[in-house]
Design a protein that fits this description.
Number of helices of chain B: 8
Helix content of chain A: 55-70%
Strand content of chain A: 5-15%
Oligomer: heterodimer
Largest sheet of chain A: 3 strands, antiparallel
Radius of gyration of chain A: 26 Å
Order of helices and strands of chain B: HEHEEEHEHEHHEHEH
Distance between the termini of chain B: 44 Å
Largest sheet of chain B: 6 strands, parallel
Number of helices of chain A: 15
Strand order of the largest sheet of chain A: 5-1-6
Order of helices and strands of chain A: HHHHHHHHHHEEHEEHEHHEH
Chain lengths: 306, 241
């Protein structure tokens, strides 16, 4: 119990922004109020700790968190900086990390769980104060999905490259539709109302945050053979069928039917539908969102049963 | 360690040519939160995949109250903390089925040294739990600067027969003259001197030069590892003579 109380008090002193008096005796008085579970000796020990030395940990923790966020959520952070309420003082990565900590402390050990804290902060604290940035919530969802895809465990079947794709161009339509395909577990669906993929690219390449264009679309993200994250825009039915079949084998005709269902409503010809389907298929395979068979017995054993 | 993609594929390629040894920062051996059994399970699987002959982590706490502290936080040097850590190390060793080493950390503060010194704290834990000691010579040096004790005296009072690996690193002082254990510079002469003395006590052992920020060209990194090799070879030659 005593050890728990000491570690918990130390955590609060490092992370919770407690203002510490310079005199050790004053600190001891404050700690008696703040930490009633500590014994007098434990209070005296903690009171001996210099506030400036303690501050090294505070700086280290929040600077490291800020650095993780900047790497994984560049678009979100640029949007947050542009929407930072003036009453919160000057924006900095550290100030952001400290505010996130107050709303949703980092519970896990992976950057994905820090992303969950960032999402909670956006929802609870910033979004209500940032009406001028309606795409902020989508940005953080998109970048969290990218992080999950980038870090996801390797799949039993590796993604295919351009050269492997050519193998399928020689097949007849009926042969192609009979092909088996595997949908990796790491595939994520993201619904976007703005063209955030373009805005993110522009930010990373030019360092400038451009107001994204309004462009509603559903995208599927996956990890291609060359790593990174690639997105493919798909009709809702196509997205649904792929998401439902994550981690499974399915025949391509299932996906084709979904395309057909979505296109019939739009009154498109069958030939046009197939052309679109084939182009999407190539994009999905190139993005790593679909791996085409045939699979050998060992590969099939690694995948979930149908 | 359970991530996939680029880093994992490259790691497995490296494994084909070199021995890889696992070293962690997230075990939180000193935390009063329950030991993360799922983390241990994944660690065991990962060590098997890379063929790590042992694994190690830091004698500290990195989370408490289910909150990630991200940094290596110092424990109070108390009998209660010794008992607590020893019990957890035994569980870790049992679960991992691998030799396990604990590393002495850089610490900017002393939470409590009323009951024992840091050297006594480390020695008690290592001896009672039967784990190995990962001796970070740079951390000892930095702590001697922060807390005003003699680095060699500190090292001499540790159970050096239990050292399974040694870490060395450098740091850049900030503009205000302060410094932290930043792993972003060459190992300084005073740390090399300590290392030479340590090797006379431990004998040749595994050594890691840590440089994980502001990385220099590979040739510069190799200079550092070759320096470590020369120190060990020189000691071996003296022993043989």
């Amino acid at each position: 119990m005593a050890l728990q109380a000491v570690l918990s008090a130390f955590r609060q002193l490092v992370l919770d922004g407690v203002e510490l008096p310079e005199a050790a005796s004053e600190r001891a008085r404050l700690f008696r109020e703040l930490f009633p579970d500590l014994s007098d000796l434990e209070v005296d020990d903690l009171a001996k700790v210099s506030p400036s030395r303690l501050g090294i940990y505070t700086t280290s923790v929040f600077s490291a968190e800020a650095s993780i966020l900047k790497n994984a959520f560049p678009l979100t952070l640029a949007a947050i900086e542009s929407s930072w309420p003036p009453e919160w003082g000057e924006y900095s990565g550290r100030a952001l990390a400290q505010r996130i900590h107050k709303v949703a402390p980092w519970r896990g050990i992976h950057s994905m769980s820090l992303g969950e804290s960032l999402i909670a902060f956006v929802d609870q604290e910033l979004a209500p104060r940032a009406p001028g940035c309606p795409w902020l919530r989508e940005a953080v969802t998109l970048e969290q999905a990218m992080l999950e895809i980038r870090r996801a465990p390797n799949e039993p079947i590796a993604p295919q490259g351009e050269a492997e794709l050519d193998r399928f161009s020689a097949l007849k339509v009926s042969e192609l539709l009979e092909q088996e395909a595997y949908v990796p577990v790491l595939v994520r669906e993201v619904s976007l109302s703005w063209d955030l993929l373009k805005a993110r690219r522009a930010l990373l390449e030019g360092g400038v945050l451009l107001e994204p264009e309004r462009r509603p679309q559903l995208v599927l993200g996956a990890r291609p053979k060359e790593y990174g994250v690639q997105f493919v825009a798909l009709p809702r039915e196509g997205c649904t069928i792929l998401i439902e079949n994550r981690g499974k084998r399915a025949v391509l005709s299932l996906l084709a039917e979904a395309f057909l269902a979505s296109s019939v409503e739009q009154g498109t010809s069958e030939e046009e539908v197939f052309r679109t389907f084939y182009a999407s298929l190539r994009s999905l395979v190139a993005a790593g969102a679909l791996v085409l068979g045939p699979f050998d017995t060992a590969e099939a054993r690694l995948m979930n049963p149908q | 360690m359970d991530f996939g993609g680029y880093s994992r594929d490259r790691l497995m390629q490296i494994r084909e040519h070199y021995q890889i040894i696992s070293h962690g920062v997230c075990l939180a051996i000193g935390s009063t939160d329950p030991l993360d059994r799922e983390y241990l399970r994944r660690m065991k699987k990962f060590c098997r995949e890379i063929g790590s002959p042992w694994t190690s982590d830091h004698l500290c706490f990195t989370k408490v109250d289910h909150t990630n502290m991200l940094d290596l936080m110092p424990l109070p040097f108390t009998r209660e903390a010794v008992k607590h850590v020893v019990e957890r190390v035994r569980v870790v060793q049992q679960e991992l089925e691998l030799p396990f080493l604990l590393e002495n950390i850089t610490r900017y503060v002393t939470v409590s040294d009323r009951e024992m010194s840091e050297a006594e704290f480390i020695s008690e834990i290592v001896t009672q739990s039967g784990c190995g000691l990962l001796l970070d010579v740079t951390n000892v040096h930095l702590n001697s600067q922060f807390h005003g004790h003699d680095a060699w005296q500190f090292i001499s009072s540790l159970p050096l027969e239990r050292v399974g690996q040694i870490h060395l690193a450098g740091w850049e002082a900030a503009e205000d003259g302060s410094f932290i254990d930043s792993h972003d510079a060459p190992v300084p002469p005073e740390v090399w001197e300590l290392f030479k003395r340590v090797i006379t006590k431990t004998g040749p052992t595994s050594v890691l030069v840590e440089w994980d920020n502001l990385l220099p060209p590979v040739s510069r990194l190799l200079d550092e590892t070759q320096m470590a090799d020369r120190v060990i070879a020189s000691h071996a030659a003296q022993v043989a003579a």
